[in-house]
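Hello Y.,

Per our agreement to keep a running log of every chain we model this quarter, I'm adding this entry. I've kept the format consistent with earlier entries: sequence first, then predicted structure.
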Amino acid sequence: MRAAFEIRAAVLALLALQVITALGAVVLLARTGPAVERILAENDYSLAAAEAMARAIASRADGPMGPDEREAYDAALERARENITEAAEHPVIIALSRHRDGLVAGDAAARDASLDALRGLSAINRASMREQDLRAKQLATGGAWAVVVLAGLALFLAVLQVRRANRRLVAPIESLYAVSRAVQAGNDLRRCSTVDMPVELAAVATTLNDLLDARASREAMGRRAGARLSASGPPPDRMALLAVLDAVEHGVAVLDAFGAVVAANQAGLDALGALDRPTAKLAEAAEGDADALPAGVRVTTLRDAFVRVDFQST
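Predicted structure for the entry above:
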């Protein structure tokens, strides 16, 4: 059914957008996390090594380093050498390695050169940390705007689908109800419009229009028949018809298309009064269902939609 397909397609489209939005948020968080981890794993590690070397130098302001200071300095230098993450760190590590022996021996020039190199190493890693932080912020901002765009698109599609449902489903159903109520109130000319309706509702509207047209045609035919028999003919004709019916020995009655008695003798009126649901039974019999009537009752369809009923057993 096309109406059901439209509803399912709209719901699935909204659900798909919600899933995409949720996955986008997950991917954003997943990509922001490694940026922070990289700062901690790379730059902070090098800064800690530089600080350890600076403490080892500061512990012996003049003169050669002792065994403990030398061991701490060498361990920190090795950590810095193994954790080179920026191209600018290479010449700094080379300079620290070149001045290591002079620093350990207590050379003042080597000590000053090593401190300058450590300051440079710290500056390089801090700059790298700021750069990584900026990238993480840009990634978070871009991801946030992507989520906003997806959410806005989902909202737009939701509003669009609601308006489409109102136009394609709610409005046609309200139109069918309005036409039914109008006809019930006596407006026999009101009909349903089938423009811009789903196939199913258009079929219902067309069927309702056909039923209303058939009903109006039957009513018009009955009015014409009644007018011919009663209003248009002179009173003596009706009196003659009643006289003929009174001369019939069994009960007989003439009904119009709506089941109203047009003429009958007294026996026919008595038989009609004793018959359960006479209009429905006579209509069924006139359409070919003779079993709907008791035995002895015969229905004959006359011209102009009149029905003659003979009660043979009365």
